[in-house]
Every structure is written in structure tokens, then in C-alpha cells.
Amino acid sequence: MKYIILILTTILAITSCELIPNLERDNANDVNFTGDKNKLPIEFEIKEIGYVFSYVTNGGTGFSQGSKTYVKINLQNKTISDLENVSAVVSTSSSSVSLSTTNFPIYFKNSYGIFASNEERQGKLYSQNNDIIEAPNGLPYSFYIEISSAASKGDIISFKIEVTEKQGRQWQDTFEITIE
Questions:
Q1: pLDDT tens for residues 115-137?
Q2: 45-57 pLDDT, tens digit each
Q3: Distance CA 135, CA 10 (A)
Q4: Multiple choice CATH, 42-178, 2.130.10.10, 2.60.40.10, 3.40.50.300, 2.160.10.10
Q5: CA dist., res. 67 & res. 72, Å (int)
Q6: Measured CA distances, 60 to 13, 68, 129, 166 (Å)
Q7: Are 125 and 172 in contact (CB under 8 A)?
Q8: In sequence order, which residues have a C-beta less than 8 Å from that of residue 22 and are 6 or more positions away?
Q9: What is the mean pLDDT of the chain?
Q10: Is 88 exposed, middle or buried (0-12, 13-18, 19+ CB in 10 A)?
């Protein structure tokens, strides 16, 4: 009896299904997505914050009191599509540091201006001639900070990064650096 009910239910389910020929694929993770990927929000993940070079006056390391530190920031593009002309601005409200990125956006791109989906890339500063600006040791950096000699060891400095891409979409996050 239960097999007869199962067979009848299966037949009813199969024969009553109507095919929908033009069903919109609205899941952006679907390989058959039919929407405009340029209208989806962009997303990144901060993968690394570090320093590439530092002038230290008190014998400390990179993020020390009284230092001028060239910082690198790596982001991973978590957006499902490649992005063009990705740039960022870093800011802080801390009086313990001064920041170099007031007039210089940080760019995350390859030689074609693309930041591929799932790619991790270091942000870099570029000159007006599109040359990468390097720290005194020849390594590229994202921005530099001057840490006040009045800052205390263990102070935590908060920063905000705001990222924009060619379509005008924006993403922001925060990160911290601890004074060593």
C-alpha cells in the first residue's frame, strides 16, 4: 500500500510540474547568473598590515614612538567579479600619528588596472607618471605614517580604509596598529 502511494505521489509531482522557460537567475554565485554583476556590492578582506621600512630614532622597531614608517596593506578581492581601477584612502582620527595619504590614493591593480576576483594584492602609491613610488629601501608601500614621540608603547591607533572602484561602488573597514 505504501509503495502505491509513493508511486502515485511521484507521478503526480512529475506531471504537475510546469517548466518555467525564462526564470531569472538572481543568485550571483550561480554559474548561470543573468543579472548585472556590476550592481552587486563589492567586498574585500584585509589580509596583511605590515611595514616595509622604518626610520626609527629610539632604537625600536617599525611602529615605534618617533618613527617614520612605510606601511603596506594587502587586500583580497572577495567580490565575485574582477574589478577595475580599485583605489583606497586611509584615514585616522588619532593625534599620535600623521598620515601620508591625504593627497595620494592607494591603488590595488595589475598593469591592466584589474584587481581579479579572489586575488590578494598589495596597495601601492603611484606617481603622476604611473611609476610605483618606493620606500627608501626600494620596496613598494601603501602609505607612510609618522608616529609622535609622545605616543606611548602599547597605544592602539585605529585607521579606516575606504575602497572605491570604477563603477563607484564603495567598501570600508577598520584596522589597528599597536605602538611598539
A1: 999 999 999 988 888 888 899 99
A2: 999 999 999 888 7
A3: 70
A4: 2.60.40.10
A5: 15
A6: 73, 12, 35, 40
A7: no
A8: none
A9: 84
A10: buried
Place of cell 554565485: 29
Q: What pLDDT, on the 0 to 100 scale, is given for residue 39?
A: 73
Domain ranges of the chain: 42-178
Question: Does the model's pTM come out above 0.85?
Answer: no
In the block, which residue shows the cell 538572481?
A: 26
> What is the reported pLDDT for 25?
55
Q: What is the DSSP string of the chain?
A: -HHHHHHHHHHHHHHHPPP-TT-----TTSTT--S-GGGSPP-EEEEEEEEEEEE-SSS--TT-TT-EEEEEEEEEE-SSS-EESEEEEEE---TTEEESTTS--EEE--TTSEE-TT-EEE-B-B-TTSPBPB-TTS-B-SEEEEE-TTPPTT-EEEEEEEEE-TT--EEEEEEEEE--
